[in-house]
Design goal:
Elements (H helix, E strand, L loop, with lengths): L14 H13 L14 H20 L5 E5 L1 H4 L9 E7 L5 H17 L4 E6 L1 H10 L1 H7 L3 E5 L1 H17 L1 H19 L17 H13 L9 H19 L8 H10 L5 H34 L23 E4 L2 E4 L2 E4 L11 H12 L5 H7 L11 H11 L4 H11 L2 H5 L20 H14 L7 H10 L10 H15 L4 H12 L3 H8 L5 H8 L5 H18 L6 H18 L18 H11 L3 E7 L2 E9 L4 H11 L2 E11 L2 E10 L7 H13 L4 H12 L11 E4 L8 E8 L4 H11 L3 E10 L2 E9 L8 H15 L1
Parallel strand pairs: 2-3
Antiparallel strand pairs: 1-2, 1-4, 5-6, 6-7, 8-9, 9-11, 10-11, 10-14, 12-13, 13-15, 14-15
């Protein structure tokens, strides 16, 4: 793309002229009246901006003897983003007059500062620059990209020659240092391809890692895989350019509120499309880094040991007088060599379509990486017949069941597109972001991580093959509109049939995908003692074998989601639901009950009895490894739920889960809570404040409103509005209202106040918090104890929704 606003002969020498030319370049404003301009983008923009800046800085230096102005780092590569720093080095001969060198430096630095541009600068002799690089790895990396701008070119040439010679000579020491630097940065910044607000430069798989790979290549010890790496680097740079232009700031962090604007600037339909492309690029960089650093380690280990002299007399047995690397068989056509899984010499991928799965499974079982050249050869394998032969299906299951090593083998196949050729449906979820704070991974990586977790549970089920395939496919519907469980059911059935499962087994896989959220959602949002709750499971799952698989899949899915998705509390609720449903599926009758069941927890019975006898609240607080448990027993009366929730909020206790039930005139509340900061309050203080809240002497609403006024301005970003719905068939003895909202201090208090204001009684509540979102279920009745009528239920739901809105 050619820029029309600046002629090749233009060399702005003052800040005003340079600023005007820079603005025309970035905005595409016409350089002359009547001539339309077009702003360049991508590499053309970075190159044009670097050349424009080169000319300006060269003119600022002017004619100067014994000095050279050198660009280093990204600017040295001739790539200048709209808000990038200028990394400059002023070189001078050792015998140059210090006062004159200082005057020359001021002549360059001050106009840059006057422009408001960020400047990273240094003044050194070539020997000084070399000495600094020897002590500072980052300085040495910058010198590898040194580029002459103006002055004495011999100084720049000598600097580059020395920098490269030192780098190659010191590579055995410098490269481990560079790898450690990359690992420390990754630990601080995280993995770019899994972050909702990634740092395009510092996160693992970002631009810093690309620079590190260039440095490794410059050492001549190893080289990064070239396939797709330059395209990935260009995409990350283009995204950073768009971020700079839309924000007007020198930032590398792609925050949520900027993503739609950046996507539009790049011609993409929205933030998800942008993140998907960025994640794909980061995955390419990360994989290249894994391969490159593994090769660096191999080379350095080989250099550190003495070569093994050939033992065969007469010069036979190996080339060059050394024993060839030992090759140990792993599977048909697959061997281990130098700590990697490679293809045997007789392997023919073009004639063996099962070989990619066989090689990946063998590598994962052995805990070995697949060699890059092996993966490239596997990409040439022919298509599998439909349905797959039994060996292909078995090798897939073996790969999925290999535990933690599954991830590396799967990503190696993905790097060459092998996975998408075997399972075209994979493209629906590949690098797909999940805009939920609970999820640690993109959809595709979450599916593989679920397989890792499921492999650890394989001994609990009779059909581990069905469990592992369902784990791989349970979120495959997230690539479509609508309910991903419903969409995924049909996709999973088709895939299961195609890979060779019988129709009955394919139906089980489809059922697991359709209902993979059923157990955890039902257990945490419904009354386990209500027959309708158990019936929701038994209506969906036909037999105990499928229930067993669904139980394992539920746990694997939650563990692979993130630490907030699973806990001892949730596990106990799911276990209780599975026991009840399993008993019914085994032939035991469903016990109908009209009244609330007596408390089954041994700690609740004494508390309930004490509350009835004293006529006041009873509070029990105990700390556990995964939080704290608060037990309340309060004589049933209006306002108990909002009062208790309000007191917890005032004491900065976050409710992670809760259940509330009314039994024999006592409201029993069991809360799982965590402190926002500090230590747990004393139970006596909680009881005292609860008594005051119930009698009206504690202004809970006013105190919470004051806190909301302080914290509300700190929140950012737009959030979906809360919703309140009536759960059809949730219970025969009560009306079930489901509340979905963003978590906030005092939210449960506001819900309780809204329900009290609507004139209904809360007979039970089941609170579930995941990350920043809550899904709460409230069992309510009218004053007479009967479920609400349809119109009344809808009206109450609407009233609560308006209060929350």
């Amino acid at each position: 793309m050619t820029h029309t606003g600046l002629r090749a002969t233009d060399t702005p020498t003052d800040p005003g002229s340079y600023a005007a030319a820079r603005l025309r370049l970035l905005t595409g404003e016409p350089g002359e009246p009547g001539k339309p301009g077009e702003a360049p983008a991508g590499p053309a923009l970075r190159t044009a901006l670097a050349r424009l800046t080169d000319g300006w800085l060269g003119a600022l230096l002017g004619r100067a003897h014994d000095v050279a102005l050198v660009a280093v780092g990204g600017y040295g590569r001739g790539e200048l983003s709209p808000r990038s720093d200028l990394d400059l080095l002023l070189l001078h001969h050792p015998g140059a007059d210090p006062a004159r060198v200082a005057a020359v430096a001021d002549r360059v630095w001050y106009p840059v500062w006057d422009m408001g541009l960020a400047l990273d600068h240094a003044v050194r002799t070539p020997a000084g620059a070399r000495a600094t690089a020897a002590d500072d790895l980052k300085v040495h990396l910058g010198l590898l990209d040194a580029r002459h701008l103006a002055g004495d070119p011999a100084l720049t040439t000598a600097l580059r020659t020395t920098a490269y010679a030192d780098w190659r000579a010191q590579a055995p020491r410098r490269l481990p240092e560079l790898r450690e630097l990359c690992e420390e940065r990754a630990a601080r910044q995280g993995e770019l391809r899994f972050l909702l607000e990634p740092d395009l430069k510092e996160a693992r798989g970002g631009l810093r890692d690309v620079t590190a790979l260039r440095a490794v290549a410059a050492s001549w010890l190893a080289d990064a895989p070239r396939q797709g790496l330059e395209e990935a680097r260009t995409l990350l740079l283009d995204t950073r350019d768009a971020l700079h232009r839309t924000t007007g700031r020198a930032t590398d962090r792609l925050t949520l509120q900027e993503q739609d604007q950046v996507a539009a600037a790049l011609g993409l339909p929205g933030a998800d499309a942008l993140l998907s492309r960025v994640y794909r690029a980061a995955a390419t960089v990360s994989y290249a880094g894994d391969v490159t650093w593994r090769e660096v380690g191999r080379v350095l280990r080989a250099r550190s040991g003495r070569p093994r002299v050939r033992r065969v007399l007469g010069g036979l047995g190996g080339r060059g007088g050394f024993v060839e690397p030992e090759r140990l068989p792993l599977a048909e056509g697959v061997v281990e060599q130098d700590g990697e899984a490679v293809l045997a010499r007789t392997a023919r991928p073009d004639r063996d379509p099962v070989l990619p799965l066989r090689a990946a499974a063998a590598a994962a079982r052995a805990g070995l990486p697949l060699a890059p050249h092996t993966v490239r050869r596997l990409a040439a394998a022919g298509p599998l017949p439909v349905p797959w032969p039994a060996e292909a299906r078995e090798r897939l299951v073996t790969l999925l069941g290999a535990g933690e090593h599954t991830v590396a083998a799967w990503e190696a196949l993905e790097s060459e597109g092998v996975v998408s050729r075997l399972l075209p449906e994979w493209e629906r979820v590949r690098h797909r972001p999940q805009r939920n704070a609970v999820h640690r991974w993109t959809v595709d990586r979450h599916l593989v991580e679920t397989c890792v977790r499921a492999a650890a549970l394989a001994r609990r089920v009779a059909r581990p093959d069905l469990l592992l395939v369902a784990a791989l496919l349970h979120d495959i519907g997230k690539g479509s509109d609508g309910d991903h469980s419903v969409e995924g059911e049909a996709v999973a059935r088709d895939v299961a049939l195609r890979i060779g499962f019988a129709a009955e087994d394919a139906s089980v896989v489809a059922t697991l995908v359709r209902h993979h959220l059923l157990l955890v959602e039902t257990a945490t949002r419904r009354d386990l003692d209500d027959p309708a709750t158990v019936r929701a499971v038994t209506d969906a799952v036909a037999d105990t074998g499928t229930l067993e698989l669904l139980h394992a899949l539920t746990e694997a899915d939650a563990l692979a989601t993130g630490p907030a998705a699973w806990s001892v509390w949730r596990a106990s609720l799911v276990d209780g639901l599975v026991r009840r449903a399993g008993a019914v599926l085994a032939g035991e009758p469903v016990v109908e009950r009209a009244d609330a069941a007596p408390p089954t927890d041994g700690r609740l019975r004494p508390a309930a009895a004490e509350a009835r006898a004293s006529g006041g609240p009873v509070v029990r607080l105990s700390a556990h490894e995964d939080g704290a448990e608060l037990l309340l027993a309060v004589p049933d009366q209006p306002g108990v739920l909002p009062a208790a929730a309000g007191v917890l909020a005032l004491h900065r206790l976050t409710v992670r889960a809760a259940d509330v039930r009314a039994v024999d005139g006592v409201l029993l509340l069991r809360w799982r809570v965590a402190t926002e900061y500090g230590e747990l309050p004393e139970a006596s203080r909680l009881r005292s404040d609860l008594v005051r809240a119930l009698d009206g002497s504690l202004d809970v609403a006013g105190r919470l409103a004051e806190r909301e006024a302080v914290y509300a301005p700190r929140r950012r970003g737009s959030l979906p509005p809360p919703s309140v719905t009536v759960a059809e068939g949730g219970s025969r003895s009560a009306t079930v209202l489901e509340v979905r909202a963003e978590d906030a201090p005092g939210l449960l208090y506001r819900i309780g106040r809204a329900l009290e204001g609507a004139g209904v009684w809360v007979r039970g509540a089941y609170v579930s918090t995941l990350g920043g979102s809550v899904v709460d279920a409230f069992y309510v009745t009218g004053a007479g104890g009967d479920p609400l009528g349809e119109r009344e239920a809808v009206a109450v739901a609407g009233a609560v929704e308006r209060v929350l809105g």
